[in-house]
């Protein structure tokens, strides 16, 4: 065991503060990574503030962070995929059983025995896992991703959650050239969804509550932008969407979007608001529409996504901050005041 520097919260209402946490000594399959950047996902905020208390209550102290990019500092004796000095990345999961049908299918995110990167029982040290708001992490090699050399590292970190969470459902539901795609909510996830839909050749329509994001939406690749609080603009959209991805973190009316789908179209939630959302069943009955959810993506697909980003030169639009600004960043995230992801420069932890 060794001590790593980190930032943690000690209750749902306390601010982040500097601390030290224990990391395990490397086993033969482990990779130790010096963390260079960690994105701030809205899930970090939900978890730090115990907003998912019903499903995944937060154990304090909590060190969030599952959009991790860094450099390998040490590897276990059985690791062949990485060596000291390599760039490496870690997303939302750090382990799974590797044997269940989900793991065999490359869908580790649905493994009943997986381990999430933070706030999950730590199989090695007891207590809970600690995430990427830290200067180092030790992760089983199977859950470490290769980082393409041509991408900006600060903008690569958010790909590990915001990227895969939007890429995976688009691949699963076959978004391609000519598909009409809606993206609801232009935040961290939403702006990645727009980039992917555009790169896949889809006709992409952004629904935003923020008129100030309109120009950005076009720049990111949208073909149309709708201000969702404007009833006239919404009414003009009609019922022709093949696929709508909803990445909103708060309560909102999803029925308006379900009614915009064509026959057999898919409305997919990736946003994870705390409270249940009412669904009008008639919207589903007519035109046999589908309402689904999607959770991150498997490890092989995450690597595929990173390689896709490398080919298409896609990264997240980030505002880089030092860890000392994390409390301010959380306040701004709640107000949708970030374009479009905070990425923490972890070298700032050295000053603590
Ligand atoms: N399924 C998964 O695997 C997965 C993975 C990661 C995150 N998530 C969840 O996905 C959600 C989004 O995460 P994120 O990091 O992208 O968050 P984010 O950056 O805060 O973006 C959320 C966006 O939702 C819109 N929004 C916020 N409040 C709204 C309201 N009251 N009504 C309508 N729209 C509203 C805003 O976009 P506009 O300003 O454009 O309206 C905002 O930018 C979170 O709940 C997060 O926990 C799920
Ligand atoms: Zn996330
Ligand atoms: Zn499994």
Folded structure, characterized:
By secondary structure, the protein is α/β, with parallel strands linked by helices. Helix content is 23%, strand content 26%. The chain has 11 helices and 17 strands. The strands form 4 sheets. Strands 3, 4, 5, 8, 9, 16 and 17 form a 7-stranded mixed beta sheet that branches. The chain has a 6-stranded parallel beta sheet with strand order 12-11-10-13-14-15, covered by helices on one side. Strands 1-2 form a two-stranded antiparallel sheet. It starts with a strand and ends in a 7-residue tail after the last strand. The mean pLDDT is 97. It binds NADP nicotinamide-adenine-dinucleotide phosphate (NAP) and zinc ion (2 copies). Residues 41-43, 46, 161-162, 165, 185-190, 208-210, 213, 247-250, 252, 270-273, 294-296, 333, 336 line the site of NADP nicotinamide-adenine-dinucleotide phosphate. One zinc ion binds at residues 41, 43, 66, 161.
N-C termini distance: 20 Å
Main β-sheet, in a few words?
A: 7 strands, mixed
Overall 3D shape? globular
Helix content: 10-25%
Features:
352 residues; alpha/beta; six-stranded parallel β-sheet; binds NADP nicotinamide-adenine-dinucleotide phosphate; binds zinc ion
Short description:
This protein has 352 residues and is α/β, with parallel strands linked by helices. It has helices spanning 42-48, 101-104, 153-156, 162-172, 188-199, 214-220, 231-235, 255-258, 281-285, 299-312, 326-334; strands spanning 2-8, 17-23, 30-39, 68-75, 87-90, 93-95, 115-116, 136-140, 145-146, 180-184, 203-208, 224-227, 241-246, 261-269, 290-293, 318-322, 341-345. The chain contains 11 helices and 17 strands.
């Amino acid at each position: 065991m060794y001590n790593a520097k980190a930032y943690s919260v000690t209750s749902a209402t306390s601010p982040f503060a500097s601390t030290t946490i224990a990391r395990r000594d490397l086993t033969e399959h482990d990779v130790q990574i010096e963390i260079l950047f960690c994105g701030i996902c809205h899930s970090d905020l939900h978890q730090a503030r115990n907003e998912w208390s019903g499903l995944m209550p937060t154990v304090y102290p909590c060190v969030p962070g599952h959009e991790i990019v860094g450099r390998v500092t040490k590897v276990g004796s059985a690791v062949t995929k990485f060596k000291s000095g390599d760039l490496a990345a870690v997303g939302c999961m750090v382990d799974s059983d590797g044997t269940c049908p989900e793991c065999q299918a490359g869908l580790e995110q649905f493994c009943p025995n997986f381990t999430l990167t933070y706030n999950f029982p730590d199989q090695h040290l007891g207590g809970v896992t600690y995430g990427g708001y830290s200067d180092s992490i030790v992760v089983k090699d199977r859950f470490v991703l290769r980082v393409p050399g041509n991408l900006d590292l600060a903008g690569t970190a958010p790909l590990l959650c915001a990227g895969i969470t939007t890429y995976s459902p688009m691949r699963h539901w076959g978004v391609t050239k000519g598909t009409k795609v809606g993206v609801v909510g232009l935040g961290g996830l939403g702006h990645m969804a727009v980039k992917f839909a555009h790169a896949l050749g889809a006709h992409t329509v952004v629904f935003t509550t923020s008129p100030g994001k309109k120009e950005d939406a076009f720049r990111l690749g949208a073909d149309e932008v709708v201000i969702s609080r404007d009833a006239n603009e919404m009414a003009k959209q009609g019922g022709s969407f093949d696929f709508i991805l909803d990445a909103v973190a708060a309560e909102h009316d999803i029925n308006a979007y379900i009614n915009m789908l064509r026959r057999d179209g898919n409305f997919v939630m990736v946003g994870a608001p705390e409270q249940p959302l009412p669904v009008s069943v008639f919207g589903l009955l007519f035109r046999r529409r589908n309402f689904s959810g999607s959770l991150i993506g498997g490890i092989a697909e995450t690597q595929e996504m990173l390689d896709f980003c490398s080919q298409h030169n896609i990264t997240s639009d980030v505002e880089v901050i030092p860890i000392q600004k994390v409390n301010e960043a959380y306040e701004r995230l709640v107000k949708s005041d970030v374009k479009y992801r905070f990425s923490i420069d972890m070298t700032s932890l050295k000053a603590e």
